[in-house]
Amino acid sequence: MVTPSENSEPLRLHAAYTLAEMGQPGVSLLGEILLSESEEFAYRNAGYGLSAAGGLAVPLVLKYLKASNISDDAMATLLFVVGELGMKAWGAVPSIIGLLACARNVYVRRIASEALGPTLLGCCLGGEDSEKAEYLEKGIQVLCQAIDSDEDEQVSCCIVGQ
Length: 162
Prior knowledge:
By secondary structure, this protein is mostly helical.
């Protein structure tokens, strides 16, 4: 995006938001940045841009959540985006559940727990869809299991708000 320097954060954010305003081409570029960069500022800014893109980012985010070759930092950023998109990203619930239950990285599990609540809301408000009802039930079960089995209290503190 933009090279790091002391004063370039506003410029990097502006670039991310500008890409989001470009529509699908910008969203695709933000996704490429997220997957290819190794700098924290690049993940963070790509995430802000994807969040700003709203519903346009959902298909890309859902696709990348299923990718196996993604770094923990990029995955955590995607989960942050899902949480920001909230109900629009209800289709991410199965991926979030899987990450919350199985991710080795505690930070990824923590961000997954934070993202699950807003996306489960999409299942609650989604009407009488049996798929959404199943996601809601499974999501609540996994959150309860995460609280019970969280050895380092990094996940449960997010869920119960301590």
